[in-house]
């Protein structure tokens, strides 16, 4: 679709002079220790934060493993058959090699896959390949949130999930992380032999990170059984303090307390394992969560001390005999203390059916932003600017499939608008809005494939008729003027008040294995793969849209066509939060 008539019509008035495209793309510094890099936020001073995934050389603890157990010998035999015998190759490692701590890249890949498939088993090591990163100032550096140095191997435990979510104008950052897992020995009642278990102290804590890297936690309202808190956005107040929003546990509902009382007696397994199981029950249904969670507004002073913790409410009133858990979450806040996010609400025509809808938290009220009678059944409000413009997305059935559509809501007029996106059944989500009402996000661009569609970043000016694909605003060729442009802009994550866009582009690079080593085929030829890169897009003075020749446009389509899954890869990391500019 490069370059589309839509983009041409929207940006035709930018300039009459001939320049190289509308935006220039700049790669940000990355970590050598990870494969994929994702931006989550940036401020007006050009400070950028995010996540990395696919960390190389993840540590494997082999000290507790009996490599003669059938669970691992069967996994090894299956791996050998699928990855080696089927292509007439000899496997490059044995279980004895792993037991002796000699893990080549293939052995490491096998063990990471094995541990991942047994992630729901409390007797196996927990490994997380996600880390927080400060992309600027260059060079990029990892920001440790709540992980700790391991007692079983060198370095951090790498068992911690991180969400590095937002940054204020003066460089204070917020996010969330889980407690690191610890390896313990426990003898079940009636048994004579101790077993190995991996436990943690709590599921999640919101964190505040000072500009110098000092990490402090935001405690939940109730820390019963560990509790949970998350921080999704931060903004500096006029008095020099800060507002931070997110969610926190406020208690344990009646039904979950009964579950705890029945199961967590410490006889057959450690109490911490039982709590972990109950926490995991919410993975498919938030009503089964161990905790009641509410949107929270933390007020911090200029020294980042918490001076007030405010429950922002819930979009429904639970019945007296309802023992389930309910959830509300604040994802963004402005300096006036107006917060937006999502909340459980009741379906308008069914008191018993619970939906999760975009909401505004204002003056003690939880206000739905979408009209359920228009068939909207889910969604989130992800950003709010200082002018009272909210953006987010809703979900409904379109052409037989569940589809998300981005919207904006103007608090000044009370109007909610769903702009036209790439096409009728394209799923689109907004990520950010700046002070001038420019919204960025991403949407599906494949019309034919309805099961797994490629996503590409968009930009939308409030009042325009439709969105523009940001790829249509980039050059046709690389800097040599001949090679095809090497980037596909997949996700637009943040936009500052000067219109600088930050996000994720995919690019072909040398393929690296689990050890971070370059991979080659049987003939010794270097293999390549598409990776997610953090990028900055700046407007070119006097720039205009390039009309790419058919061969360049065709190459662009082929290049981007195989990269759609990378855009989806980031969604679990980015869906939690958005922030204002």
Q: How would you sum up this structure, described in words?
A:
The longest helix has 14 residues. The radius of gyration is 25 Å and the shape is globular. The N terminus and C terminus are likely disordered. The chain has 581 residues and is mainly beta. The protein has 8 helices and 30 strands.
Q: Descriptors for this entry?
A:
globular; disordered N terminus; 8 helices; four-stranded antiparallel beta sheet; 14% helix; 581 residues; mainly beta
The residue ranges in which pLDDT falls below 50 over 5 or more consecutive positions are 1-19, 552-581
Strands of the biggest beta sheet: in what spatial order? Answer: 1-30-29-28
Q: Determine Rg (CA atoms, Å).
A: 25 Å
What helical percentage do the residues reach?
Answer: 10-25%
Kindly estimate the percentage of residues that lie in beta strands according to DSSP: 35-45%
> What does the largest sheet look like?
4 strands, antiparallel
Mean pLDDT: 90
| Total beta-strand segments | 30
Span between termini: 31 Å
Structural class: mainly beta
User: Treating each run of at least 4 consecutive H or I residues as one helix, how many helices?
Assistant: 8
Name the overall outline: globular
């Amino acid at each position: 679709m490069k370059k589309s008539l839509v983009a041409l019509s929207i940006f035709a008035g930018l300039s009459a002079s001939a320049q190289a495209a509308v935006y220039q793309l700049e790669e940000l510094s990355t970590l050598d220790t990870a494969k994929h890099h994702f931006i989550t936020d940036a401020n007006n001073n050009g400070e950028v934060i995010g996540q990395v995934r696919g960390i190389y050389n993840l540590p494997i603890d082999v000290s507790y493993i009996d490599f003669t157990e059938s669970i691992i010998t069967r996994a090894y035999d299956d791996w050998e058959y699928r990855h080696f015998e089927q292509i007439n190759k000899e496997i490059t490692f044995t279980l004895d090699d792993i037991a002796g701590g000699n893990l080549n890249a293939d052995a490491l890949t096998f063990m990471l896959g094995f541990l991942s498939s047994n992630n729901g088993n409390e007797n196996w090591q927990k490994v997380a390949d996600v880390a927080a990163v400060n992309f600027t100032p260059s060079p990029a550096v990892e920001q440790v949130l709540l992980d700790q140095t391991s007692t079983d191997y060198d370095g951090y435990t790498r068992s911690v999930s991180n969400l590095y979510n937002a940054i204020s104008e003066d460089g204070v950052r917020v996010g969330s992380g889980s407690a690191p897992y610890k390896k313990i020995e426990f003898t079940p009642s009636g048994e004579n032999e101790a077993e190995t278990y991996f436990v943690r102290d709590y599921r999640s804590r919101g964190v505040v990170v000072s500009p110098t890297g000092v990490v402090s936690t935001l405690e939940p309202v109730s820390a019963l059984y560990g509790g949970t808190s998350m921080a999704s956005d931060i903004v500096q107040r006029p008095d020099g303090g800060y507002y931070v929003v997110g969610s926190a546990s406020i208690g344990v509902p009646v039904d979950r307390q009964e579950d705890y009382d029945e199961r967590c007696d410490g006889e057959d397994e450690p109490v911490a394992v039982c709590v972990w199981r109950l926490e995991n029950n919410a993975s498919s249904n938030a009503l089964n969560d161990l905790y009641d969670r509410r949107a929270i507004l933390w007020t911090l002073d200029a020294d980042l001390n918490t001076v007030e913790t405010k429950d922002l409410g819930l979009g429904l009133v639970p019945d007296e005999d309802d023992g389930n858990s309910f959830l509300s979450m604040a994802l963004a806040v402005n300096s006036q203390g107006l917060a937006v996010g999502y909340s459980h609400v009741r379906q308008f025509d069914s008191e018993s059916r619970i939906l999760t809808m975009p909401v505004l938290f204002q003056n003690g009220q939880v206000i739905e932003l979408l009209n359920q009678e228009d068939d909207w059944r889910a969604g989130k409000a992800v950003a709010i600017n200082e002018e009272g413009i909210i953006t987010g997305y809703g979900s409904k059935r379109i052409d037989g499939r569940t589809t998300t559509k981005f919207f904006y809501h103007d608090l000044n007029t009370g109007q909610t608008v769903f702009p036209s996106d790439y096409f009728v059944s394209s799923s689109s989500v907004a990520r950010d809005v700046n002070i001038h009402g420019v919204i960025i996000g991403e949407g599906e661009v494949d019309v034919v494939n309805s099961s797994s569609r490629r996503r590409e970043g968009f930009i939308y000016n409030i009042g325009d008729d439709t969105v523009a694909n940001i790829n249509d605003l980039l050059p046709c060729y690389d800097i040599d003027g001949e090679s095809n442009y090497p980037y596909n802009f997949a996700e637009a994550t943040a936009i500052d008040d000067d219109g600088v866009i930050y996000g994720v582009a995919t690019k072909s690079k040398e393929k690296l294995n689990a050890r971070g080593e370059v991979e080659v085929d049987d003939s010794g030829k270097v293999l390549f793969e598409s990776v997610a890169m953090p990028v900055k897009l700046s407007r070119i003075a006097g720039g205009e849209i390039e009309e790419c020749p058919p061969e360049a446009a065709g190459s662009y389509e082929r290049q981007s066509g195989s990269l759609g899954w990378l855009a989806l890869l980031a969604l679990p990391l980015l869906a939690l939060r958005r922030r204002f500019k």
